[in-house]
Amino acid sequence: MGRRAMAVLAAVAVGLIGVVSVLFYANGADARAVADQRPRTAYIASQLVPSGTSAADAVARGLMAPTQIAARGVPAGALTRVDAANGKLLALTDIAAGEIVVASRFGTAPLGQKAIQVPDGNVAVSVSLADPARVGAFVTPGSHIVIYDTFATPAGVKETRVLLDDVLVIAVGSNSLTPVSAGGAPAPAQASGSSLLVTVALLPDRAPKLVHGIQTGTLYAALRGTNTQAKLGQIVTDTSLFN
Length: 243
Known about the structure:
Shape: rod-shaped
Number of helices: 3
């Protein structure tokens, strides 16, 4: 066989190798494309998952659910199952609705409790009240109260006035309208007989009255009944007490 024939055969062999290589690459690319599109199960938050919520509770309450997602869209470490091994782990921080949940978002202890829920357009102010000044243990989150302020006038006469006539209580101690705890139950309140923080929601233009009363007087709360109307102009003094 001459040199020319040998060269032709070599060229044909190289061409065949090239064709085979292209076919293998194309088949591999097709396989990778199919694998990228193949659906995988991952959990997505359908609602806000508050910090401190266990994975099992989040699933049971419909806060997150398993969803089929194309494999290429599933992030590394995505939460793909909730079972006895990880169901008791707690959300370390709030998980936003629509987020693909990553397993590392859950752990043994949350990084911090979620702030109390303050109604839109309001501010939260806390005041320390003893048991009698907060109607014993009957003032609870969701109660509406009247707040009285007792203070001394420049003449040394004590006066008591209605400071705020209708105030929403959003927290008492560590119990709030939106409690967050490891077991889903509110933390126990402070022991009876001691002062306890009562947190209320107020419109911004009313909050300074309470802050000033905290700084200058002695505050007392009364639990409001249905349709109760407290008189903001009512004043009781040392001299008018028995009139």
